[in-house]
Write a structure and sequence with these properties.
about 150 residues; disordered N terminus; single chain; mainly alpha
Amino acid sequence: MGFRRGCYLISVAVVYAALASSAYSQISASANKAKTTNLGPISVLQGVYTMEQANRGQLVIADVCSKCHGGDLRGLDFAPAITGKLWWRSVTLSGLFRYVSNYMPWNAPNSLTRQQYIDTIAYMLWFTGYPPGSEELPPDTSLLDSIRVEVLP
């Protein structure tokens, strides 16, 4: 390996390490914020949505999301599963809400109402096995920042 190629590879490694460190810092900050807030439940395991809300979300998913993600939400060849451990990529529900509302549906991002997006997330929580509660999940990202996504026991 030549000197220039070696320098290039080291530069690329340093850039990737910096990006990974930055992403980890943002995730850690989000997790710490979720742990220290007093704005309601701190875990999806505590029941953060109602069955009525999940039922509304089921209608949206049947009408919009199932076209790409399948009727069983386990994904199709061109779209991933949207239930189970595979879709839990955010530390708080605000991250998931932002992702879904900014990028879904793929052919018309941000085309649903905030309520429809949060109802959809409520159904995804129910379908994955998280328990319902007595209060609806709010479509307010500042409140969703306080609700951590945790793996089912």
